[in-house]
Write a structure and sequence with these properties.
Helix content of chain A: 25-40%
Radius of gyration of chain A: 19 Å
Strand content of chain A: 25-35%
Number of strands of chain A: 13
Distance between the termini of chain A: 52 Å
Oligomer: homodimer
Chain lengths: ~240, ~240
């Protein structure tokens, strides 16, 4: 059966790709993706046919992959991080309804929450919530509700898409909601360019985070009530009766 | 400087390990871990010294790794899934305070939430919460609060440690809490033995999940209000104004 693999290539491709993802990219005829991600794998898999679409052309990109598979090719659609976390896996299944002859398989990857956590230390050790601050496809009221609920129940919170040119004050607003339930000195961390050139990280308090400007290449971590800074690392204990 | 790497080997080791994790296991002198995980990598890295401790001896395991690094060895402590999600990364930093001469580095891996999601389809595409039902280190009231908050704010919810011999009714109780806010026909999924021999999965409603008996090798996914079943896959759309 013709097949499209939706492959998470990890935060920066390369070393953080799984052996399975590498195997599948190696065996495929065609690699489809957003231009920036295709550039990350082009050198390593130079014998492939590459098909790209610019940002925000996701449906077109899925159809392109499915059409290509229909002609008998093995196709990999690549996504940054994990294909199943704010990635293309869902849209591929939705678009795939029109292509019953094409099988779809998801190949997991390291998402920014895991990759960024490893850079900061161990912030996600206990229950956590992942929330995107992008209101492109989600009403802001829904995002606000989730931020408050997660803060109220003392989750560690990981924020994706914390900022963009049009949404420069979203992180500040998110911090204000969380400050209704979390302490001002809650330990937080930010990581920029996870797994790529120019990777940087910083540990700061929730109060400081509120007035920090971040960009769209940044992932934000907000600790729970027990999260601490330990020798420059952000560390969440495993539980309350911690040894 | 002497170094301990805390390495997530993915849900079933092998193909879901990253290239970075494989590189580090290859270069280390000693691999430390819980017996079951060590058995997963023993064959591939047969020239290493292996040190193991049984379950629930986590502090001892960390000290063992740090002591070994102190003697000048490069040491990898391996964890199933991701070292930073209910893994040993946090405890290693906490134990490492007594070993200032040993550097600690975390190497991320595919956690069960990502690995299981890929098996089911695309359940985690939008905001999600990860909650462990184990009350070994967390009071049940805290777990209850988190389940209700996550359900109330319409997160997709991924449950780790949904059951054990002593906690056979925990998943049922968790479903009852979530049913206060989520519909009975909310699309859910369970995956057993992710990435290992005997991997199985099932899609069912939240009402059915409530009366389903699962074991400790199972990861549970509870959809949000928009999650649907599509050709036998569990799929969450990207947002409310979905295309």
């Amino acid at each position: 059966m013709n097949k499209v693999y939706v492959v998470g290539i990890g935060p920066g491709a390369g070393k953080q790709m799984t052996a399975e993802a590498q195997e599948i990219l190696a065996l495929c005829d065609t690699i489809v993706g957003y231009t920036v991600y295709v550039d990350l794998v082009k050198e390593q898999f130079s014998d492939k046919l590459f098909l790209t679409t610019p940002m925000k052309r996701e449906v077109e990109r899925c159809r392109m992959a499915l059409e290509e598979a229909k002609t008998g090719k093995d196709v990999a659609m690549i996504c940054s991080g994990d294909a199943g976390v704010y990635g293309m896996a869902g849209l591929m299944y939705e678009t795939g309804v029109d292509f019953p002859e094409v099988e779809i398989e998801i190949v997991p990857g390291i998402t920014a929450a895991m990759g960024g956590a490893a850079v900061l230390g161990a912030p996600l050790i206990h229950d956590f919530a992942v929330i995107s601050l992008s209101d492109l496809l989600t009403p802001w009221e829904k995002i606000e509700k989730r931020l408050k609920a997660a803060a109220m129940a003392d989750f560690v919170i990981c924020l994706y898409n914390p900022s963009s040119r049009k949404r420069h004050d979203y992180l500040k607003r998110a911090c204000e909601y969380m400050l209704e339930y979390k302490r001002e000195d809650t330990v937080c961390g930010i990581v920029r360019n996870i797994g790529r050139e120019g990777e940087t990280s910083e540990i700061l308090t929730l109060k400081e985070l509120k007035d920090t400007q971040v960009d769209m290449f940044t992932t934000v971590f907000v600790g729970n009530d027990e999260t601490k800074e330990l020798n420059g690392r952000m560390v969440t204990p495993r539980g309350y009766r911690n040894v």
